[in-house]
Design a protein that fits this description.
- This protein has 109 residues and is mainly β.
- The chain has one domain: Rieske [2Fe-2S] iron-sulphur domain (Rieske Iron-sulfur Protein, 3-layer Sandwich), CATH 2.102.10.
- Helices cover 0% and strands 40% of the residues.
- It is built from no helices and 9 strands.
- The strands form 2 sheets. The protein has a 6-stranded antiparallel beta sheet, with no helix packed on it. Strands 5-6-7 form a 3-stranded antiparallel beta sheet, with no helix packed on it.
- The N and C termini lie close together (6 Å).
- It binds FE2/S2 (inorganic) cluster.
- The site of FE2/S2 (inorganic) cluster has 10 residues, from loops.
- This is Ferredoxin subunit of nitrite reductase or a ring-hydroxylating dioxygenase.
- It comes from Marinomonas polaris DSM 16579.
- GO terms for molecular function: 2 iron, 2 sulfur cluster binding; dioxygenase activity; metal ion binding.
- Keywords: 2Fe-2S, Dioxygenase, Iron, Iron-sulfur, Metal-binding, Oxidoreductase.
Length: 109
Amino acid sequence: MFNKYLIPDAQNLPEGKALNITVEKYNFLVTKQQGQILAYENLCPHQKKQLNWSSDPALDEEGDYLKCHHHGALFSPLDGTCITGPCQGSHLKKATVGIEQGNCYLLFA
Ligand code: FES
């Protein structure tokens, strides 16, 4: 059985952009890539810190990668793989996203 949490305004998220949402004690990065809404736990595998601060978008300057602002690790927004940085080869933890009646939800077991 899943609990579901609405991701506010996910439908209006521009392609290649990211936003943060907090659910219970967890923070997530939500991004739209190739028309798909993807979500990752906002926790860098390097030192288990949030990738970004407050409203910082957690993207690199070009908006191509999710970026950890502590030590510069870059992650593929499509699958969360660290492509360069101190945790290269590791992954952000992907969260399950569901769509119901046009709304996007984070799903938790
Ligand atoms: S904590 Fe993210 S790169 Fe070091």
